[in-house]
Amino acid sequence: MNKSSKTPLILSIIICLVMLVAMCSYSVGQSEAVVITSMGKQELETKPGLHFKFPWPIAKSSTINTKRQIFTGSARDIPTSDDILLSSQIAATWRISDPIIFRNSLGSLTEAQGTLKSLIETNQESVLRSKNRNDLFSSKGMQVTESELLNNLNGKTEKNYGITFDFVGITSFNVPATNSESILARMKEERTKEASLILSKAESEAKVMRDQADTKKAKLLAGAEAEARRKRGTSLVSITEQYEKHLEYSDFILFLKKLDALGEVSRYDTTLFLGPDTPIYDVLQPMKFQESK
């Protein structure tokens, strides 16, 4: 067999190998999941990269896009429980959280989008019909309504379709002019009440902080005064001990002791009527010095 006759055989072998590798492998990309069906059993692979499996028809692979999807609804006129016709528009984001359930129930994003549109609009109408103007336009009315929409949708889609909603929000509300003034007045009243509660709480906390500061200040002043008296007493004792060693300073020592006693008596808010020669208080009189001979 010459070289030219071997070329078709080599090409056939290469093509067969490529086809075999293609049938026995699959790849998982970012934001993707692959469901492998083999012998009636389903397995999920979410790790990105190249993977291997048994060839078809033993094992089949189905790629599921798990990227977050966005839904934007159109404006719809829905009456509230108190018969106010509101034009509202809703938006939502969702993703496939369980690819196996999704594949067995819906199978494709096209089918999912049609089914979810019907579910979202039905849920939107049922929730808004159960609300009145006070429920929707109170301080937390919109937040509560959107949370209710989100929980209702997840309760229907997670187990049945393997889909989870991350966000559901009402993007616009058009209120009839005949009801706009009363709704705005209600909203202003709610905001004023909430601001009053916040201000009252702040004033209460400020009073507690002031009381704590005053208490701490009183304790610090009392401690400082006690420390000052202690140090002054210690100093007077030390000075007195030094001066008592010298008899020529006995008059000055007596003066210091009287002055200390006068300070202790004068600590209290008391009015006394005494003569200038009363002991202790005589220190307030001008001192008489003897002339040196």
3D structure, described in words:
The protein is of the alpha+beta class and 293 residues long. It folds into 3 domains: 12-65; 69-175, Tetrahydropterin Synthase, Chain A (2-Layer Sandwich), CATH 3.30.479.30; 227-284, no CATH class. The chain has 7 helices and 9 strands; from the N terminus they run H-E-E-E-E-E-E-E-E-H-H-H-H-E-H-H. The strands form 3 sheets. Strands 6, 7, 8 and 9 form a 4-stranded antiparallel beta sheet that branches. Strand 2 and strand 3 (41-45) form a beta hairpin. The model is unreliable at 289-293 (pLDDT under 50).
| Distance linking N and C termini | 156 Å
Number of strands: 9
Low-pLDDT parts are 289-293
Average pLDDT score = 78
Measured as a percent range, the helix fraction is: 40-55%
CATH superfamily of the largest domain: Band 7 domain
Q: Largest beta sheet, briefly?
A: 4 strands, antiparallel
Helix and strand content put the structural class at: alpha+beta
Radius of gyration over C-alpha positions, nearest whole angstrom? 46 Å
For this entry, what is the oligomeric state of its chains?
single chain
In the CATH scheme, what's the topology name of the largest domain? Tetrahydropterin Synthase, Chain A
Integer count of domains:
3
